[in-house]
């Protein structure tokens, strides 16, 4: 395989991305990808939860947009997925979402470390001044561990997202990574190499080499995602991500169809 599938891309329905699925698909073909997957921000049970996701009433429209891309680009495998926010207590809602369409996979992402603070939101950067970074990491990885254990997700998204703005705890976070990765290995849940981190102040792929090295040792499967919010970002920095994965020992990546996992050579 030349480049692995790009399993993390968005659509304008989330209100902060540009370009239709057909435009992302066209770009994917242009750069030689053979498989992609749309994983836009899923609706929450409460319409006003935040302002960066599709509304529940748009879920069918989302599926139709992806189906249209599949029809227009038959030479490209296009998966239907969602990036679902994991918050403790939202499990029933996520289960119901899963039953509504024949999804190929769910990316489980932790953005919220409380009901109101999404750690990656630049509008809430001032929150970091009120909290200790180590405490944020702890809450984040506790939630990520619960997400893996829930078995609601096929892939865990951007596993060290709190590093986005370059604020990091001085303490060693290895015990957090271990606990999360043990849960992922146990649940058979993959983690993604998400190249969007390279475009953020942390200037680093999610997750870090340290975390990825541990993931390989624990035999946690991987996927690749650009987290594209515009067609030009499809497959961005994938060569670098593949090099990182290989350098810690990975020789396989993962594909999903109807929530069934398949390992393929990287
Ligand atoms: Zn987004
Ligand atoms: Fe995300
Ligand atoms: Fe995303
Ligand atoms: Zn994302």
> Main β-sheet, in a few words?
6 strands, parallel
Main sheet strand line-up: 1-2-3-4-5-6
The helicity comes to 25-40%
Average pLDDT figure:
97
Q: Remind me, CATH topology?
A: TIM Barrel
Order of helices and strands: HEHEHEHHEHEHEHEE
Strand content: 15-25%
Shape, per Cα inertia axes: globular
- The count of DSSP E runs of length 2 or more, i.e. the number of strands, is 8
**Low-confidence sequence ranges:** none
Q: From the 3D coordinates, which CATH architecture would you assign?
A: Alpha-Beta Barrel
| Helix/strand class | alpha/beta
Distance between the termini: 6 Å
The first-level CATH class is given as Alpha Beta
Bound molecules: zinc ion, fe (iii) ion
Radius of gyration: 17 Å
Tally of contiguous helical segments: 8
Corresponding CATH superfamily = Metal-dependent hydrolases
Q: Count the domains.
A: 1
Describe this structure in words.
With 266 residues, this protein is an alpha/beta fold. It is built from eight helices and eight strands. The strands form two sheets. It has a six-stranded parallel sheet with strand order 1-2-3-4-5-6. β2 (77-85), α3 (91-100) and β3 (105-109) form a beta-alpha-beta unit. α1 runs parallel beside α2 (59-72). The model has no long low-confidence stretch (mean pLDDT 97). The structure holds zinc ion (2 copies) and fe (iii) ion (2 copies).
């Amino acid at each position: 395989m030349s480049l692995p599938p790009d399993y993390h891309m968005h659509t304008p329905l989330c209100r902060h991305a540009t370009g239709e699925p057909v435009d992302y698909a066209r770009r994917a073909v242009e750069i030689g990808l053979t498989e992609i997957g749309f994983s836009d921000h899923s609706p929450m049970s409460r319409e006003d939860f935040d302002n960066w996701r599709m509304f529940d009433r748009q879920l069918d429209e989302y599926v139709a947009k992806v189906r249209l891309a599949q029809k227009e680009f038959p030479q490209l495998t296009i998966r239907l997925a969602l990036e679902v926010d994991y918050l403790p207590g939202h499990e029933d809602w996520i289960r119901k979402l899963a039953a509504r369409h024949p999804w190929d996979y769910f990316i489980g992402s932790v953005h919220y470390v409380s009901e109101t603070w999404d750690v990656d939101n630049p509008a809430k950067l001032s929150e970091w001044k009120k909290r200790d970074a180590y405490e944020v990491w702890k809450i984040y990885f506790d939630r990520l561990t619960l997400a893996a254990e829930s078995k609601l997700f096929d892939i865990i998204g951007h596993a060290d997202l709190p590093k986005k703005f370059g604020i990091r705890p001085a303490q060693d976070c290895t015990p957090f990574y271990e606990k999360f990765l043990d849960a992922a290995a146990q649940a058979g849940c993959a983690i993604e190499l998400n190249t969007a981190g390279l475009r953020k102040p942390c200037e680093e792929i999610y997750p870090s080499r340290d975390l990825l090295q541990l993931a390989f040792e624990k035999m946690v499967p991987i996927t690749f995602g650009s987290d594209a919010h515009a067609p030009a970002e499809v497959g961005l920095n994938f060569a670098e991500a593949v090099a990182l994965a290989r350098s810690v020992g990975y020789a396989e990546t993962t594909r999903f169809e109807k929530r069934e996992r398949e390992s393929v050579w990287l």
